[in-house]
Design brief:
- Strand 4 and strand 5 form a beta hairpin.
- The protein is α+β, with helices and mostly antiparallel strands and 274 residues long.
- It has a 5-stranded antiparallel β-sheet, sandwiched between helices.
- The protein is elongated, with a radius of gyration of 22 Å.
- The protein contains 12 helices and 5 strands.
Length: 274
């Protein structure tokens, strides 16, 4: 099946990005409109069954302006008997949700394997593991949305039919689908107060330096020797960083700082190997 170029029909055209920078909480009606756009895009791509979550770690369903779950009013799933938004344990069984925890870019399922634009180890490990339930899905494109603060949402477009050219459709439309899903989940997080609304935290270079050494498993004495300052000075910087971040204790401070992007993976990986 030859797919059409949907750029002219895409609900999130490049010109729309000028409106995304406006700093104001989205209205409930806007969430409904975005949900309808997600529905329409799924129908155009040939993946009409849709599942959404603003936070895969929470059982609370995404609701529309009327307070009812969008899964009951706008979206529909392949099997009406599977009411994932009412089943808190569903996220623990669903392979797409599991993949969304470790993959921060769009991926697809062709009935046999999970794949993306490039080879992703996290997806390959799921593919090579035990057989996983597909819940009637024969084809799907998934947009995992990783928000500041650690919240992960997701939009799944799916079909109960095989789509031989799914890889080509993914290459053509996944970027647009991902952008729309990002706007949808982020807007919902802002509207419901689930987003990380704290002002940007600025750490000093010295505080970051101390935290990186702490993340690598260094003691206060080792940090003081590494950066040539006194031990009380090291503790002063670590305490200041914890206060700014709103953390309690060394481990939580390092964890929050890592989540904010102040500490690279190299530091945390080094600590794990030690």
């Amino acid at each position: 099946m030859k797919t059409r170029n949907l750029a002219s029909q895409n609900p999130l055209r490049s010109a729309d990005f000028s409106r995304l920078a406006v700093s104001r909480p989205p209205e409930p009606a806007q969430i409904d409109r975005l949900a309808e756009q997600i529905n329409a895009l799924g129908a155009q791509v040939g993946l009409p069954s849709i599942a959404v979550s603003a936070d895969i770690g929470s059982p609370a369903p995404m609701a529309g302006a009327d307070g009812r779950p969008l899964a009951e009013t706008v979206f529909h799933w392949i099997d009406p008997e599977i009411q994932y938004w009412k089943d808190p344990a569903f996220a623990l069984r669903a392979p797409f949700v599991h993949a969304a925890r470790t993959c921060a870019e769009p991926f697809y399922f062709n009935g046999e394997r999970l794949a993306s634009w490039r080879s992703i180890q996290a997806l390959e490990e799921i593919n090579n593991g035990a057989d996983f339930p597909t819940f009637g899905v024969h084809a799907a494109i998934v947009a995992p949305i990783h928000l500041p603060g650690g919240t992960i949402g997701a939009v799944v477009w799916a079909s109960d039919r095989d789509i031989p050219d799914l890889s080509a459709r993914f290459d053509q439309h996944a970027a647009d689908m991902f952008c729309l899903a990002q706007r949808f989940v982020a807007s919902y997080a802002d509207q419901t107060g689930r987003g990380d609304s704290k002002p940007a935290i600025r750490l000093t270079p010295r505080e970051i330096q101390c935290l990186k050494h702490a993340a690598a498993g260094c003691s206060d004495i080792e940090i003081s020797r590494a950066i040539d300052v006194s031990v009380p000075t090291v503790r002063f910087h670590l305490t200041n960083a914890a206060r700014k971040i709103g953390a309690s204790g060394r481990s939580q401070t390092v964890h929050y700082a890592t989540r904010m992007g102040y500490i690279g993976n190299a530091c945390t990986l080094q600590a794990k190997r030690a």
